[in-house]
Amino acid sequence: MFKTKITHWDIIITLTLIVISISCYVFFVHSNTNAESNEICIYINGYNAATLPIGQDGEHSFLNGEFIISIKNSSVRVIKSDCYDRTCQKMTMNKNGGEIICLPNNIVIRHRQSKNSTAGSDLYAG
């Protein structure tokens, strides 16, 4: 059998990879929390139907009362949906990020992106 010996280059490469990994994690976690992400946008068929503050508790209805979301303690969830699978009612999002997507109703709920941010996808159900 071969014996392997750890060299100083092995340690340098390992430490470099650890630093790069931690830097990427910090960048992606903190890039989603900006000052303008205190609002959520509700898109229906790809169009912005409403922009709501995430810090203000309340219930909001869409599609003639067939789709209702609840905002409570900076957390958003769907409490009523007329779609057949109701997967969107199992999704939640809070002030730190996330999305709620209801494909049968063509609704996407997401944080408002900052004006200078290019993060996020440009694809909407519809």
What does this entry look like structurally?
The chain is an alpha+beta fold and 126 residues long. The protein has one helix and eight strands; from the N terminus they run H-E-E-E-E-E-E-E-E. The chain has one helix spanning 8-31; strands spanning 39-44, 47-53, 58-62, 67-72, 75-81, 92-94, 99-102, 107-111. Strands 2-1-8-7 form a four-stranded antiparallel β-sheet, with no helix packed on it. Strands 3-4-5-6 form a four-stranded antiparallel β-sheet, with no helix packed on it.
Q: Helix and strand layout, with pairings?
A:
Elements: H1 8-31, E1 39-44, E2 47-53, E3 58-62, E4 67-72, E5 75-81, E6 92-94, E7 99-102, E8 107-111
Antiparallel strand pairs: 1-2, 1-8, 3-4, 4-5, 5-6, 7-8
